[in-house]
Design goal:
Elements: E1 2-6, H1 17-31, H2 34-38, E2 42-49, E3 56-64, H3 68-84, E4 92-96, H4 100-110, E5 113-114
Parallel strand pairs: 4-5
Antiparallel strand pairs: 1-3, 1-4, 2-3
Helix pairs in contact: 3-4
C-alpha cells in the first residue's frame, strides 16, 4: 500500500512557495518519525525540473506501507503534523493498494484533497472535528 502526497495542480496560484514548503515539511515529518520507520515505513520522493526554479522541485512523495495498520498510523501522524501547522498551502493525496476508501476517508477528514476525485467533491471537508473520529470539538 502507498499513500502519495502532492500539491494540487491545475488551479491558478495553487502551487507555489507555500504548497512546496508544506509538502517538504510533511515529508520531513514522516521521515523523522522513529516509530513509523521502525514499523517499516519507506518514504520515496520524486523530483521534477521546473523552468524558473532553482534546482529540482519536489513533485510528490510516497509513503510506502506494508500493511493497512501502518497506513492508519501514517494518517494519525499526518493529522498531528496538520494540527501543528498554520495550514498554509494545500496538499493532495492518492491511495494505492488495500482499503483505499478507509485510508482516503481518514485523510479527507483531516482536510487534505483527494487527487483521485475529479468531480470537485471531497467528502470530509468541513466535517466537525476534522480528524476522522466524528467527535465534536
Amino acid at each position: 500500500m502507498e499513500i502519495r502526497f502532492s500539491v494540487p495542480q491545475g488551479e491558478v496560484g495553487v502551487r507555489g512557495a507555500d504548497g512546496d514548503k508544506e509538502l517538504l515539511s510533511l515529508r520531513d515529518w514522516l521521515e523523522d518519525d522513529d516509530e513509523l520507520r521502525s514499523a517499516g515505513l519507506r518514504v520515496e520522493s520524486a523530483y521534477q525540473d521546473r523552468p524558473g526554479a532553482m534546482g529540482d522541485v519536489l513533485e510528490w512523495f510516497g509513503a510506502a506501507c506494508g500493511a493497512v495498520s501502518l497506513a492508519i498510523e501514517v494518517t494519525h501522524s499526518v493529522r498531528g503534523w496538520w494540527r501543528s501547522r498554520g495550514h498554509e498551502g494545500e496538499l493532495a493525496f492518492t491511495v494505492r493498494g488495500e482499503d483505499v476508501e478507509r485510508i482516503g476517508g481518514l485523510l479527507r477528514d483531516i482536510g487534505l484533497r483527494d487527487a483521485e476525485r475529479t468531480d470537485g467533491t471531497n467528502p470530509g471537508e468541513g466535517r466537525p472535528g476534522g480528524d476522522g473520529d466524528g467527535a465534536p470539538r
